[in-house]
Amino acid sequence: MDNKEISKAVINRLPRYYRYLGLLMDQGIERISSGELSRQMNVTASQIRQDLNHFGGFGQQGYGYNVRYLYTEIGKILGLDQTHNMIIIGAGRLGQALANYVRFEKRGFLVTALFDRDPEAHGSRTERGTVIHPLSELGSYLDENRVDIAALTIPTEAALEVTPILTGHGVRGIWNFAHTDLEVPDGVAVQSVHLSESLMQLSYKINHQ
């Protein structure tokens, strides 16, 4: 399967399917039809079938979907059957909140280190024991350790400075919380999270209901 054939909208819906299927397993539900799933997720049954058909379908006529099997297969599509080593650049409140979020590790995202310019933070640890390193040691750390993802919880200028270091040392994914769009070489993925834009979208919705 060529991932380029899959639309961004479909990819964006996969984590939501995964989350709902996990909730269904917690409730002890073993199988579910596309119609039943659509009512829970507020997505049409046709949309669900179209989305899943991009990856093989997974359903059986008259039976529906095996919840645990579909959960596992979507996890594989999302790469959650693998372990991803992640570092965080910026050990402020947001960076430390991400480092201490237990569910990341449960999904296979292991926060191995934080980096910050503040000398007072160097050598200290987060609540979960992750060490905070000087930002000046970033390049050498990347040379000595496999890092798949870097989360940027730093201002715009710092994000622009650190991105070439990350991409030049083999980081394949950047989770960007900085208020800027990043230019990266081919083969490096960027997922930007603009919190203020999300809040403005919410503002629009509550004012145009």
How would you describe what is shown here?
- It is a single chain.
- This protein has 209 residues and is of the alpha/beta class.
- The protein folds into two domains: 3-77, Winged helix-like DNA-binding domain superfamily/Winged helix DNA-binding domain (Arc Repressor Mutant, subunit A, Orthogonal Bundle); 84-197, NAD(P)-binding Rossmann-like Domain (Rossmann fold).
- Helices cover 44% and strands 16% of the residues.
- The protein has nine helices and eight strands.
- It has helices spanning 8-26, 34-41, 45-53, 67-77, 93-99, 102-106, 138-144, 156-168, 195-207; strands at residues 31-32, 65-66, 84-89, 109-116, 132-134, 149-152, 173-176, 189-192.
- It has a six-stranded parallel beta sheet, with helices on both faces.
- Helix 8 (156-168) links the parallel strand 6 (149-152) and strand 7.
- The mean pLDDT is 92.
In sequence order, what are the helices and strands, one letter per element?
Answer: HEHHEHEHHEEHEHEEH
Backbone structural class: alpha/beta
Which fold does the CATH topology of the largest domain refer to? Rossmann fold
CATH architecture of the largest domain: 3-Layer(aba) Sandwich
Number of strands: 8
Instruction: Estimate the helix proportion, in percent.
Output: 40-55%
Q: How confident is the prediction overall: mean pLDDT?
A: 92
End-to-end Cα distance, whole Å, is 40 Å
Strand content: 15-25%
Please indicate the count of domains: 2
Number of helices: 9
- State the low-pLDDT regions, or none: none
Strand order of the largest sheet: 5-4-3-6-7-8
Q: Calculate Rg over CA atoms.
A: 20 Å
CATH class group of the largest domain: Alpha Beta
Name the CATH homologous superfamily of the largest domain: NAD(P)-binding Rossmann-like Domain
Shape: elongated
Which oligomeric form is depicted?
single chain
Mind describing the biggest β-sheet?
6 strands, parallel
